[in-house]
Amino acid sequence: MFVSDALSINEKNHLTVGGCDAVELAKKYGTPLYVLDETAMRRAAALYRDSIDKFYGGRGLVFYASKALCCLEVLRIVNSEGLGADVVSGGELYTALKAGMPAERLCMHGNNKTYDELVYAIESGVGRIVVDNAPELEAISAICAERGLCQKVLFRIKPGIDAHTHNFIMTGQIDSKFGFALETGEARDIVLKALSLPGVEVGGVHCHIGSQIHELEPFRRAAEVLVGFIADIKDETGYEMKELNLGGGYGVMYTEADDPIEFDKYIEAVSLVLKDTCEKRGVSLPFVMMEPGRSIVAAAGVTLYTVGAIKDIPNVRRYVSVDGGMCDNPRYILYQSEYTALVANRAGDKPVQKVTVAGRCCESGDLVGENMPLQSVAAGDTLAVLTTGAYNYSMASNYNRVPRSAMVMTRNGESRLIVRRETYEDLVRNDI
Ligand code: LLP
């Protein structure tokens, strides 16, 4: 019944997360509360890491996309599992470094990195910068030349694959703010330009074809297209790019409608394509990189709320209001995302109704979900929303001056606070 093996039900009929009673967690730490299970997160990270050893002879590295959930403890765990991290801002870079992540295992992203962020990344010694546009490449070259440094760069390529429509339209993705298009020759031109610039080492290519994808085919296709590009550049210039980063996007299960693929299947599928295409095109097997974010933390996370007002609108719907909402999880208001919810203190009971779970903010669209099957529910119950580990805390806000929620980590029946709840004082800290 559960979307994650971090979850179970105890003898009190309460939901448990990582062996901890969710109702007790809510009591101890208050609500709304993000709960993240360390074991589940480590298991997902290890599955990706080991799949590169198993299917690709260890010639690669997994970067955790820290935008999914970025805080010190999460990055410490990622680091201890031997993964690198994808960082997309000075703030994520700072957090990763502060968590002890070696700079060479960081990959710096962004479609509009500031000059200061580039200097920060280069001076910190990040292993790779993924170049998104020509002025950025020139800035990197100048910053490095001034300092006598050389920065390895990858190029973000739009491979022309639309993973969401199931229709691999080769021109469909030219209209994207990210990266260089293949069809227009932009991608070729930027690589040739980089080969002539001081201070940059042309490492390879990168693509990211979308998020919450439940198919292998778009990844196979992306690998094939990018190796084709590496081979074209080699044929034209004699220079062989050695690295291929296939980005993230591996889907997870939010509701029973989702049918995720085991994470190691991605690298298995891509490995075969790489071996085949490289042989055909006469290039060596690249060092391969992946950047899973959602699939490392989403299923390890649960959000706990306290149920407040319940409002029945006859023949329309039942609103069950909780003490959080778009401030801690803006994914419904942004994408109408669907989640699975349950009453944590009646976790094993069968759902008896469909409800709209409403947040506390002054927006009609501030919902956690509509038509959510739920057990019988009353004010004071603890409501658990599952699979909230990714893109919840990292996209949280202080709208309506609501303090950001605390986060606890569970492990084998123990819990510890990893992000403190914001206070009213925190809210005015930067006000003058
Ligand atoms: N690499 C790059 C360059 C990315 O842009 C992203 C996500 C990832 C890796 C990680 O993708 P993942 O494995 O997590 O799918 N806020 C949205 C998701 C935005 C994803 C943006 N880029 C959501 O809540 O669904």
How would you describe this protein?
There is one protein chain. The chain folds into two domains: 7-30 and 300-427, Beta Barrel (Lyase, Ornithine Decarboxylase, Chain A, domain 1), CATH 2.40.37; 39-295, TIM Barrel (Alpha-Beta Barrel), CATH 3.20.20.10. Helix 8 runs parallel beside helix 9. The chain is built from twelve helices and 21 strands. Strands 4, 14, 15, 16, 17, 18, 19, 20 and 21 form a nine-stranded mixed sheet that branches. Strands 5-6-7-8-9-11-12-13 form an eight-stranded parallel barrel, surrounded by six helices. Strands 1-2-3 form a three-stranded antiparallel sheet. It is of the alpha/beta class. The model is unreliable at 165-172 (pLDDT under 50). The protein binds ligand LLP.
In short:
By secondary structure, this protein is an alpha/beta fold. It has twelve helices and 21 strands. It is elongated.
Give the arrangement of secondary structure elements.
Elements: E1 7-9, E2 15-17, E3 20-21, H1 22-29, E4 33-37, H2 38-56, E5 60-65, H3 72-80, E6 84-87, H4 90-98, E7 106-108, H5 115-124, E8 128-131, H6 134-147, E9 151-158, E10 180-181, H7 186-195, E11 200-206, H8 217-237, E12 243-245, H9 264-281, E13 287-290, H10 294-297, E14 301-313, E15 317-322, H11 331-335, E16 341-343, E17 353-358, E18 367-374, E19 382-386, E20 406-411, E21 414-419, H12 424-428
Parallel strand pairs: 4-20, 5-6, 5-13, 6-7, 7-8, 8-9, 9-10, 9-11, 11-12, 12-13, 15-17
Antiparallel strand pairs: 1-2, 2-3, 4-14, 14-15, 14-19, 16-19, 17-18, 20-21
Helix pairs in contact: 2-9, 5-6, 8-9
The protein binds ligand LLP.
